[in-house]
Structure formats: structure tokens, C-alpha cells
Amino acid sequence: MNRKTALLTTLPRTVTVPYYAPSCLFLETFLRSKLIPYETTQCSLYNVLPREHLYPLIDVDGYFFKNLMEGLDYLLAKYGKSLDSGLTPKERAQALALSALLDELTWMLAYSRGQDFTWLRDDRKIIEDFGLVQLYFWRNWIVPQMQKRTRRRVRGYGISGKSARKEVACRTEAMLEALASLLASNKYFFDVNEPSWLDCKAFAVLAQFKYTPLQNEARVKQFMKDRTPNLMTFVTRMKEEFWSDWCTTSED
């Protein structure tokens, strides 16, 4: 039977943020900002490792989208919405450039998680959702393998060696400061009445830095408080505007 309302298949939810994967958090935030109805279901625990890079999946009107942007384009067309409505051609170009910066920042996040992803093993939401056998499998196989695979991907990207930790910290701070300079005192990154897709992506990435454990946690989070407080405010504002159920989604 064809689904009229989109069904998003996502990675497991956590207590710290609704999703530890920025892609899942981005998609839900964007759909909420556009008032596009959807439902969610968590993927099978046993599909986390082999298909982690595919999530979120979108099932709607008999179509099953494994590519996030293809599915998003379909939903936008279905509901008569636009990906970048209100943006000028110059702002659209700037959004693409900032998106690339956020992708690079995600690699800095991946480096941290490749070094230590143990917080995910003992996340309270996951402990509540899984049975004993599933939880044993999650803690002792899935999370350690996720950490190893993430570390390998980061090395393949070119972040490795004895100086990697310092390099990642410096690059993270530089990118955060660049984003803070561009946001300035504005509500969103562009002069629009509602958040653009870029705002939703920035929120999904920055929320990971604000709320989840990091390798250089004390340094990075203190830097954000001292040097990029507007980014912290931006994340809080987006959370309050589009995630009124943050606690129930993440904790209950």
C-alpha cells in the first residue's frame, strides 16, 4: 500500500540529541520548518552497521528514497514547497559554500568519534529501547565497530598522525569562528523570515558540538561559549522553535 505521509527510517535515537547523525536531525528539522507531515521509525539494530551511511530513508507514495536530497526534492514538490525560497542567487551560492564548510566540520566531529564513541554505548535512551540481547550486541559489537569504521574513514580523508588532534582542534575553532562571523547577530544565516535549508543543516551539525561528548570537549565547548556565543544561541533558538518535544524525543 502506498504511503501518503512520508515515513522516515532513521538511526537509533539518543538521550543527548534526538539523533547522533546530523543527516537525520537535519531532515526532521527541515520538514518541521516547512510544515511537511511525516512519521518516523527506527531502523533495525542489525542494519545500523551495514547501512549506517544510507539513513535516513524516505518512503512515500510508493517511492523508497535512499538518497536524502532526492527524497527531499520529491516531498518539496509534493507539498508545493521550495528548498531555498526567499534566497537570492548570491545567497544560494553562499549557502552551497557554507554547506561545504559544514561538511568539513562534520569530519572534525567524525575524528572525535573515531577516537572515542563510548558515550553512545551507554546512552540512556538506547538502554531503555533495546532488550538485553540487543543491548549486549550494541555495546560489545556495534558501537566498537562504528568507532573503528569511523576512524578508518577519517584516516582515508587525510586526518591522521601525531599532530591530528591539534590540527582538528585548530580547524574546528577556525570553522566555528567563521560561521559565527557570518551569522553575526542575525536570527538566521540569511535575511529571511524562516530558516533556510542551510540553517537546518547548521543546526544539525552544531547541535552535535554543543550537546554530545567530544574528544577535546573542554577546549571546544569553552571556545564556543567564549568566542562563538551567537552559535550557541542559534542552536538553542532552533531547538526551541522546532523541537518543543526535544525532551520527549530524546529522553522519554
Automatic annotation (TrEMBL):
Thioredoxin-like fold domain mapped to chain residues: 22-113
Coiled coil (UniProt feature): none
Recorded superkingdom: Eukaryota
Entry-linked InterPro entries: Glutathione-S-Trfase_C_sf (IPR036282), Metaxin_GST (IPR033468), Mito_Protein_Transport_Metaxin (IPR050931), Thioredoxin-like_fold (IPR012336)
SUPFAM superfamilies linked: GST C-terminal domain-like (SSF47616)
Gene3D superfamilies cross-referenced by the UniProt entry: 1.20.1050.10
Metaxin glutathione S-transferase domain span: 173-238
One GO CC annotation: cytoplasm
Pfam families tied to this protein: GST_C_6, GST_N_4
Name recorded for this polypeptide: GST_C_6 domain-containing protein
Native organism: Caenorhabditis elegans
